Structures are given as C-alpha cells and as structure tokens.
Amino acid sequence: MQGRQRRSFTEEYKRQAAELVLSSGRSITSVGKELGVRESVLRRWVDKLRQEPTSASWRPTTQTTPMSADQASEIARLRQENERLRMERDILKKSIAIFAGNRT
Fold it and tell me: What domain range is 83 assigned to?
C-alpha cells in the first residue's frame, strides 16, 4: 500500500497563497480548490500570515480600499477564462486517456 507523496511548498508560495485569500476576499475553500491545496493547510498559512507583525507585503486591501470597477471586471473576466481553460484541460486529459487506451 503506497501513501500519497507529500508535497512541499516554498515559504514564498505559502505567503502568496495566503495573501491571495486575504486580498481577494474569497473563501479559503475556493482558493484552496483553485490552487489544489487542502483547506486546512491553506488556513494554517493564512493564520500564520495574520499573526506576523505588519509587514510591507500584507495590507488588508479588502477592508480599507474598495475594488475599482475595472479591477472587478478584470477579475470576473479572468475567472471565466480560468474556468474555460480548466474545461479544455479536462477534455484534453480525457481524449489522451481514450487514445492511449485504443493503442494497447
């Protein structure tokens, strides 16, 4: 019985993922799914970032600065593009599996 391979992330990646949660106003669950990281792991990263003394890289933009209409529309456009790209990727994965199965 083989267990899953344990993944390791750099401190920079952890910080960026936590900042994404804090700056986007999205839930830890949705960001975790997007990044492929478990909710509990991402929650620890966010909690760690919140406990750090105020640093230049962390500013709670969602509370102090409202998002402009341009930023909101760009985020919406990028989310739609992300969804489309995920669907295309999934279709390609399935087609590869089908063609690989036919060759054996």
Answer: 67-104
